[in-house]
Amino acid sequence: MSNKKILFVKNYYANPKFITNDIEILNKDYNVTLLNVKNRKNALILFSLLKQYIYLFFNTWKFDLIYIWFADYHSFLPILFSKLYFKKSIICAGGYESTYIPEINMGVFTNATISKAVRAFCVRFSLKHCDYILPVDETLIEYTNNYIYSDIPGKPPLKDGIKHFIPGIKSVFRTMHLGYDTGIFKKTDGVKKERSVVSAGLIVNDDEFQRKGFDLLIKAASEMPDIKFVLIGFNEYYLNKLKYETTSNVDAHGIVTYSKLTELYSKAKVYAQFSMFEGMPSSICEAMLCECIPAGSDVNGIPKIINGCGFIASKRDVNDIKAAILKAIELDDSAGIKAREHIMNNFTYQNRSSELLSLIKNILK
Description:
Rossmann fold, 2 domains, six-stranded parallel β-sheet, 14 helices
């Protein structure tokens, strides 16, 4: 193990598998210290940032590299101190810091309120002054989203990406796809695929409900009564609401464990991801590893993930979504095996581990 030290900075409340994977990967070769920041939108954030300031003031000099997941309030001070102490820095970009979609309140690049303007400033400063940006998909660098407004006649496509919002940015971009553990995400032995569609997301408000395409999926379900729709990731409010607003073929779940998630993926024939915007959505990759046939929207990293293993809807229209689902559900189980092999060959934990460690080794020479 190298004697180099890395400070790993993240939002205290953000603990998806892809972040904990990176902590595990970096710990293989380096001494990693975790700095959590409570990044909630209330007065307590000031207290949290003050604690972060004091820690960084006294400790930044000890580290060789500052590694941050997502650009936000919590990335501003670490990047500032990395410059003051001449330390290298990396920000991993997942999507939120590369867009602004007012219709669904998605992204950070808006000055609509004072707090949003401060947040946008923190994100711009962080991305402009870090040494490396590691987006999970190249479309987060610069992109034209033709899907999002395809159901609104005459409305032009959405242009976004970090370079769109920060012209002339000098930070080095290095696209680094997420990687998935093929041992954790695999079809449960003995489970037979059902004539069903599964989709997952963390749904806590109307904006996220729409962004993930659950509005159109529920409408599609009402017109496809012979197919079961399993929707995962709702808070209590939505679970209660959906009881009265969905047809009998919709089975809604709250947030579930990875073992339960794998069980639900293993049973479903099709995984649906008809999002309006994404970076590199983990759920579709995890479902494909469980031999689900993918059907998704023509957005950001989704077509690259599907890549001939399933079907794409090019327009945000329930008929296009139904067509993609029907094509997928009529395929035999060999298509699910092909989907798993595609993820295993292109988006593995081992791939990200080797790429990430190689990059950091070069940075810290």
